Amino acid sequence: MAIRKFRRNMKPVIWVITIFFLISLIAGYAMSFKSHSSNTQLAFKLNGKKVSMVEAHRSMAIMAENYKRYLGPSIDPELMNTVSFNELINRNLLLEMADKLKIKVSSSEIKAQMDQIKAAFPDKEQFKKALLSQGYTTKSLEKEIEDNLILQKVSDEITKGVSLTSEEINDYYQEYKYTMFQGKPLEDVKAQIEEALKLQKGTEIYTKDISEARAKMKLEDLDKNFDAYMEKEDFEFDGMKVTNVEYAKRVLNTLAMTKGNLEEAKEMAKSSIESEIKLLKAAEAQGIKVDSVLPLDLQVANAVKELYGKLKSEVKFTQEDLKAFFEENQLNYDVMKSADANIAILKVQPTEADDQKAKDKADQILKEVTKENFAEMAKKYSEGPSGPNGGSLGTFKKGDMVKPFEDAAFSGVSGEVYPEVVKTQFGYHIIFVQDKDEKNETVTASHILIIPEPSEETLNSKNEEVSQIVKDLTDKTITFEDLKNDKNIVFSEKIDGITEEGFIPGLGYNEELAKAIYTSKIGEVGFIKDQKDYIIYKKDSQVEEKKADFQEFENQVKADYINAKAQEALKEIELSTQNTEN
After folding, report:
1. Cα(213)–Cα(431) distance, integer angstroms
2. N or C: which end of the chain has fewer CB within 10 A?
3. What's CA 216's distance to the chain center, in Å?
4. Among 1, 14, 169, which residue's Cα sits nearest to residue 90?
5. Which residue range or ranges hold the PpiC domain (predicted)?
6. What pTM did the predictor assign?
7. Cα separation of 84 and 64, whole Å?
8. Residue 566 reports pLDDT greater than 90
């Protein structure tokens, strides 16, 4: 929903600390382990390095909370613990790799991340309390941040160290020339190809390094609470061993498909793993060999890629086959009328007067609303996505909502409308606290949201500013790329394939904008006023409708024909591996 907090306050890293972690009840989760932990109690030693119970419990709890956020609270804890414990092992192995690579982070980098975390709290005292509740000191949190940044640099270092051959780049280009790259010359997309290949190969190197490090690692003094989560064989199928970790990950990923039905997810996970093993065996029968050190899913991905390439090389065709294929798929080759344009969207912000108008409206609604008529009033007045549902936000806990809303909801009286209008970055809220569960620290509430919007007067006041931007673009004193630095410009990109009917790829349908672009001359800059925004455009080119000719598209037809036949053959192989019940 719109007012759920987006809490990613640190740069994404392999092991992510979030503000959500600092304000969630992870300490309670850690207590679900049987033993009472302390900072000095040992969880295990990995290659001689000691890992404390506090670090292990806290680390596993972070991952468990992330899983629960996406898969729901009823998720099986044993599955989560199995995956989380082994990710903890991987984390420490990666830190060991970082030492060997001599990867370091500066104190200024750590301070920048620390400042971001501190900024999420009202004052220093609240920050200290949060640290204490999670078993952190300022020093240990800084160490955690340092480790996270190091892990990110390990990932970057692996990707940076990947070398590519011209043959690999060309093969990738030929594979996607007429699909992803839409026939563009190699030089135009070479950088994009290199980035994709480096990421792909870097991921494989990283995964292989971890697998090899796990095979050589020395794990000692393991606390008995973690025995059940150690990686071990879960089952064997067709000569291949599947670990409990691989199986647990697959079950967790399948839970969303089964809407939380654990038993069904377990059956689906096992069935899909067995099908993949069959596919690997089918690829082997075709002479395809993959690195068995890699995890099963990556082995399968590589095998399918190799198998697909082999199947493509075996496709035979005649000129008549290609012409028949072309005629059957004529519409895919016909050139449709389209235009390309640079488009920028200037978002007009409401003024203080606009904001006051929204507040006045909310204040008036508050005078009229009651707990009995709240749902109807929400349907009538609320400008939020929950309005049609009577303003219902369901049940939430602390940390799920932005702070002003959360404070009001948790301090409000159960069964009553909160007596004041509450302002957040989303607008003005009238809150009905339907129920409070003190034991579980949750609130069930509904709200009516009034969003400050720029008035027509405010919009018109921007005409002069937009006209100046159009002039500067026309005079080439600025570019559409420069507009990205304007805080009021929320979008500025070149868009290809704009249809005369009004479809703007990436932005949806806008008939007025399409009409303005099509009636403009090439290179002409203009703007339209679109509801609460201004849209600035520059027409770059226009292509007229043209019936495709086979001779012109013969190379593309050949590539498409080969891909289609190879896909058919691959589909037959995949279907033959699917598990079916008698």
Report:
1. 54
2. C
3. 33
4. 14
5. 336-435
6. 0.64
7. 7
8. yes
Instruction: Give the integer Cα–Cα distance in Å for 398 and 407.
Output: 9
Token reading at 264: 């069904």
CA dist 330 and 333 (Å) reads 6
What are the CA-CA distances from residue 565 to residues 320, 326, 572 (Å)? 15, 14, 11
Query: Which of 41, 14, 26, 132 has its CA nearest to residue 80?
Result: 26
- The Cα 235–Cα 581 span in angstroms is 19
pLDDT at position 389 over 70: yes
Contact of 445 with 434, CB cutoff 8 Å: yes
DSSP per-residue codes, 206-256: HHHHHHHHHHH--EES--GGGGGGS--EEEEETTEEEEHHHHHHHHHHHHT
What are the start-end ranges of the H helices in 384-485?
403-411, 456-461, 463-474, 480-483
Number of neighbouring beta carbons within 10 Å of residue 321: 15
Distance of alpha carbon 42 from alpha carbon 52, whole angstroms: 4
Q: Which among 513, 487, 491 is positioned nearest to 500, based on CA atoms? A: 513
> pLDDT (tens digit, 9 = 90+) per residue, 140-199?
889 889 988 998 898 888 888 899 999 999 999 998 998 888 888 999 999 999 999 998
* Dist. CA 147–CA 151, nearest whole Å: 6
Would you state the structure tokens that stand for residue 320, as one six-digit string?
A: 């008549």
What's the rounded mean pLDDT across residues 323-333? 95
